[in-house]
């Protein structure tokens, strides 16, 4: 039986959240497209390399990520996840605790499955 694309994307989003909480750079590497562009809550632009380096170095540490709401939209081999939740941790040595919205655009390909190609994070 074939798994619906929305279920596959939901599972990928949950793997991404788990990787963020664990600081699992290998899992993040697999889930983020090499072309990733992300806009953070401060308006700063980051690439996949920037994100992986921040997790690898300990500059970005997520200690808690609590999902309040998650919507999934799939259109062919493209999808979008809309996450709302509370995220706590440290960034550049400063603690943070924020209610955030993540909008992630995903692409699906046979070699890699679902991967994030664009993201936007804003205060909720």
UniProtKB/TrEMBL annotation:
InterPro entries: DUF4440, NTF2-like_dom_sf
Alphabetized Gene3D superfamilies for the sequence: 3.10.450.50
TM helices/strands, residue ranges: none
DUF4440 domain span: 9-116
Pfam families named among the record's database cross-references: DUF4440
Stated name of the protein: DUF4440 domain-containing protein
Origin species: Dactylosporangium matsuzakiense
